[in-house]
UniProtKB/TrEMBL annotation:
Keywords: Signal. Residues 29-287 form the Periplasmic binding protein domain. Belongs to the bacterial solute-binding protein 2 family. It comes from Labrys monachus. Its main location: other. The keyword Signal applies. It is found in: Cell envelope. SUPFAM superfamilies: Periplasmic binding protein-like I. InterPro entries: Peripla_BP_I, SBP_2_dom. This is Ribose transport system substrate-binding protein. The keyword Glycoprotein does not apply.
């Protein structure tokens, strides 16, 4: 596995743009992604459509078809429809959930497609030819290290996780591995589905259930925003930290402003889908296919470096 910084991976984009366009048969890349049901996936949809438009304009031999799906079941149906209506040379997919999409993606691979998995891995990693994601274990671990240090090695914490996926499992594992053996006690861990409204309700439940909470970790920024609103409405003053992850611009702005509850953040850029599409398309423009697993770093975003990660005009 290769770990790289986000700027380094842009070399694939430059390489594709610089490569000569060879006369070739038309190639089709299908891009299957979740619908924009929260901020991060809205960013994914934005960058996927941008990549499709750019590649189709620059390389007439490559057709990129982007399909969004509001659920795992809908994504399975979308894959079946795509496979039935045309030959797919490559599939770039961010699975809505890991288990439900593994077998359908296997079927696409069996038909001869190159498979690029983005972000949410499948339960069988042998299906993928290329995997592009952030370092989810580091997202959890780096957040936990900061939290443990800031709390002085002890305290009561509640955790919000997303939906059952490989990346959610990895973030939780990274967090738990760090806090294990410290004086930090995890009072409860529940799913909030990477959804602000669900997180608001879950935080209300946590506040009602536990009279004292030192810190909250929501492993996604949409959930963090819901948790922060619930804390604000409760008037509780015992909570010292409320941390998230993914690099949402609203959260990065809190870090820039020196927010006491949310003084740090971890990046997880939705633009990774664009990088994955370009790297997949490169093989149809005279380059050998890139195989393996590429992971982006997950450094802490602090007040000192936050401006580097702040893009107010971005969709996320």
């Amino acid at each position: 596995m290769i770990k790289i910084k986000s700027l380094a991976i842009m070399g694939a984009i430059v390489a594709l743009a610089a490569a000569p366009a060879f006369a070739q048969d038309k190639k089709t890349i299908a891009v299957s992604i979740p619908a924009a049901d929260h901020g991060w996936t809205a960013g994914v949809v934005y960058h996927a459509k941008a990549a499709a438009d750019e590649i189709k304009k620059a390389f007439p031999n490559i057709d990129v078809i982007v399909k969004t799906s509001p659920s795992a079941e809908a994504q399975v149906s979308a894959l079946e429809d795509l496979s039935a209506s045309r030959h797919i040379d490559a599939l770039v997919i961010l699975p809505y959930s890991s288990q439900e999409l593994t077998e359908p993606v296997k079927a696409v691979k069996k038909a001869g497609a190159f498979i690029t998995i983005v972000d949410r891995g499948l339960t069988d990693p042998t299906v993928q030819d290329l995997y592009v994601a952030g370092d989810n274990i580091a997202v959890g671990a780096n957040t936990a290290k900061f939290m443990v240090q800031k709390l002085g090695g002890k305290g009561d914490v509640v955790v919000m996780r997303g939906i059952p996926t490989v990346i959610d499992d990895e973030r939780i594992k990274g967090f738990q591995d760090v806090v294990k053996g410290t004086g930090v006690k995890v009072l409860d861990i529940q799913y909030a589905n990477w959804n602000s409204d669900d997180a608001f309700k879950l935080m209300q439940d946590y506040l009602a259930k536990f009279p004292h909470i030192d810190a909250v970790w929501a492993n996604d920024d949409d959930m963090l925003m819901g948790a922060l609103e619930a804390i604000k409405q409760s008037g509780r003053t015992d909570i010292k930290l409320a941390l998230g992850g993914n690099g949402m611009k609203e959260v990065v702005k809190k870090v820039i402003d020196g927010d006491a509850l949310t003084p740090i953040e971890t990046p997880y850029p939705p633009s990774m889908i664009k990088t994955a599409i370009y790297m997949t398309a490169a093989q149809f423009n005279g380059q050998a296919p890139i195989r393996g697993a590429l992971k982006l770093d997950a450094p802490l975003i602090t007040k000192d470096n936050a401006k580097e990660f702040y893009f107010p005009d971005s969709p996320f």
